[in-house]
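Hi everyone, sorry if this is the wrong subforum. Our group has a chain we'd like a structural model of before ordering constructs, and none of us has done structure prediction before. Sequence below.
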Amino acid sequence: MKISRVIALLAAVILMVAMTVNAQWGNQATQSVGDNGMVNWSNQVIRATGIGAGNPNLPLPSQRATAIRAAKLDAWRNLLETIQGVSLTSETTVRNAMVENDVIQTRVQGILKGFTTVGEPKYLSDGSVEVTVEMPLTGALTDALLPTGQGWGMGQPMPTPSQPTNAVFTGLIIDAKGLGLRPAMAPKVLDEAGNEVYGSKVVSREWAVQMGMVGYDKEVTRAKSNDRVTDNPLIVKAVKVSGPNKADVVVSAADAATIQAAAANQNFLDKCKVMFLVD
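Answer:
Right subforum, don't worry. Here is the predicted structure as C-alpha cells:
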C-alpha cells in the first residue's frame, strides 16, 4: 500500500511539473510544427516527442531500454522535421536551405543528435515509451543555417536624421501584434520604401549566432524586462508585415529615422538587441 501511494505521489508530481511547463509555453510565443514538434520563439528552443517500443521477447528491463532508444531515435527524426518547418527568412524555410545545400543538411542532422532529453520517459499502457527532447535554436543550429561570407554588418547606414535624438535606448521592441507576423530565424525590419533598417546588413553575424536575430514575445511588459533589450528599449509600432513567409516587419519612415538616430547614440542594432511582439 505504501509503495503504491509513493508511486501515485510521484506520478502526480510529474504531471504537475508537465502541466506547469506546458502552461509556461502556452503563455509564450510558440509555433506547432506537425503533430510532434514545437518551437518556443520566446526561449529560442525547439522541442519534439518520440515514441518507441521494445522487443517483447526480451526481459522487462531490456524491453524498456530498447524502447527508450527507439523513442529517442523517433524524437530525433521529429526534431529534424520540426526545424525543417521553421522559416529561415521571409523568403525561405530551413527545409529549402537543407535541400539546396548538402553541407547544411549534414551539419544540421549531426547537431540535432546532441539534443537534451526533457523530464523522464513516459511509459504508455501498451508497453511503448514516449520521450521529449529539445535543442536550442541559437548557437550551433543558427551558425549552420545563416549564410556566411561578406555582407554581415557591411550595409550602408540610413541617412542621418536632421534632428538626432539625445535619448539613450538599450534596445528596440517592434509591436507587430494584429498583423499576422510569423517568426523566423533571420527576419528584417524595413522602412516603407523597402530599405533595410535592421537585418544582416546591419547586424554582426557573431551576435546573430549567439543570440538569434530577434527575440519574440506576446506581452510588451515582459518584453521590456527581457535581458535582450533592457533597461530602456525604444518601442515602435509596425505598419505591416512583408515577404512570402510574413516574417519581415515594416515601420513608417518616421519610425525608421527614429530607430537610426537611437542606434547612433548607442549601437544596439549590431548586437541583436531587437524584439518583435506577436499574437
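For your construct planning: Residues 172-277 form one domain. The first strand starts at residue 30 and ends at 33.
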